[in-house]
Write a structure and sequence with these properties.
alpha+beta; about 30% strand
Length: about 100
C-alpha cells in the first residue's frame, strides 16, 4: 500500500517543517521503506527541475513489520516534535 505522509505545523516556519520532514524521511527509510521519497510537483516553466512539496513523503508499506515499524517511529518522532502534526493517507486515493 502506498502511503502519503504530510508534516504540518501552524506555528513553525517552512524551513523548520522542511527540516522535520527530512528527519522523518531518514527515520522512515531506516525502519519502514528504504525507497521512501519526498513528494515532488511540477516546477514553473521558467525554473529548473521539480519542486519539492513542503512536508510530504511517499512510501510503500508492504509488510506487517514495515507498518509496525512506521507507526512506532512516527510516535517517537511526534514525542520529540510536539508542535508538529502528521497526516497519513492512502497515496492513491482520489480527492
Amino acid at each position: 500500500m502506498d502511503v502519503k505522509v504530510t508534516v504540518t505545523a501552524v506555528e513553525l516556519s517552512d524551513e523548520t517543517i522542511a527540516e522535520a520532514t527530512r528527519e522523518l524521511l531518514k527515520i522512515i527509510r531506516g525502519d519502514a521503506d528504504p525507497r521512501a521519497r519526498l513528494v515532488t510537483q511540477e516546477a514553473p516553466a521558467d525554473s529548473r527541475g521539480a519542486e519539492i512539496a513542503l512536508g510530504q513523503i511517499v512510501l510503500a508499506l508492504v509488510t506487517g513489520g514495515a507498518v509496525k515499524g512506521f507507526i512506532k517511529e512516527v510516535f517517537h518522532f511526534l514525542g520529540r516534535h510536539r508542535r508538529i502534526k502528521i497526516e497519513v493517507q492512502n497515496a492513491t486515493a482520489k480527492n
